[in-house]
Design a protein that fits this description.
Elements lengths: L1 E4 L3 E3 L2 E3 L4 E3 L2 H9 L3 E3 L7 E2 L2
Parallel strand pairs: 4-6
Antiparallel strand pairs: 1-4, 1-5, 2-3
């Protein structure tokens, strides 16, 4: 699931920048969206996959 970060954070030793789009597991994405750390960005075109 694609998400757009609302804050800068670190996940699995990788820096996630505010405003950037990342592709993460759906379970993780939903948790971050509920916590207001990110928003759904499924319409964004460029993203970085986080394993």
């Amino acid at each position: 699931m694609k998400i757009k970060m609302l804050v800068q954070s670190q996940y699995k030793s990788e820096l996630l920048r505010e405003g950037k789009v990342y592709d993460v597991k759906e379970e993780t994405a939903k948790r971050w969206i509920e916590s207001k750390l990110a928003v759904d960005a499924s319409t964004e075109t460029s993203s970085k996959t986080i394993k």
